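User: Some background: our group keeps a shared notebook of sequences we're curious about, and every so often someone picks one and asks for a predicted structure to add to the entry. Today it's my turn. The entry only has the sequence so far, pasted here. Could you supply the structure so I can complete it?
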Amino acid sequence: MSKYFVPIVLMLLLSTVAHAKVAIVTSTTDIKSIAEMIGGDLVTVESLNKGASNPHSVETLPSYMLKVSKADLYCKIGLDLDAWAAPIIDGSRNGRLVVVDCSQNVPVLGKPTQKVDASMGDVHPLGNPHYWLDPNNGLIIADNILEGLISVDPANADTYRKNRDSFAAKLNQKIAEWKSIAAILQGTEIVTYHDSWLYFANAFGIKVDGFVEPRPGIEPTPSHTAEIIELVRKRQIKTICMEPYFSDRAPRTIARETGAKVVVIPPSVGGVTGAVDYFSLFDTILRILSGN
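Assistant: Of course. Here's the predicted structure to add to the notebook entry:
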């Protein structure tokens, strides 16, 4: 054996270790997008849920457990939206995995004021979990991810902090831009399919008057659809919003009976063409709602 063989192999191994990227798995594409911006070239990120799929229900697949078994960091939505992540994380048997709950420090809206039971549908006892749809919460998500990254890769803490600051600067600039675009939507009344839009409506001055679902997670019924038709007529509501992963049968019925327009708006990155990252998600939603 050449006397140079061992040193060369050792150098290659050290180089591989030195350049190994932090492996991140996220529950959703929104968290993935922000994690990519905070981690930059130092991370790889994969989302278990896809943007055009319902984040409330993800199948517990062995392939997902395998992905998490190789990860350094798992970033979840929290507030029980992605309760499905727990068995995946447990099944991964990854004892070194750091789990980040991105809902930490978020001002939670929609907390039930009464005891929650199954008759109420898919009501979340901890509050409405769609908090990423208020862009002001984007920085809170970024800070939670930053903390997780520093815990698993302290050597690159300064880089992650700089990336976070760059993200914050762009986010603040975009929020001002979005507020300007949304000015024409102030006070607009809409009906949505699911209770996904509480945070978004609160951020941009939109009023959600009703839901196509009779209760969260419950399929539309003829009697409830009739009630929504009456509501839309009475309030002269012009827009019925629905997520891309729900059936448009009931929304189309309501639109046909009232003259309202059905629009598909993405609650997550990748939900429709053009919503390729956290920033363009809001660009896309506001473009659709403003009719531009």
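Suggested note for the entry: Residues 44 and 64 are 16 Å apart (CA to CA). The chain has ten helices and eight strands.
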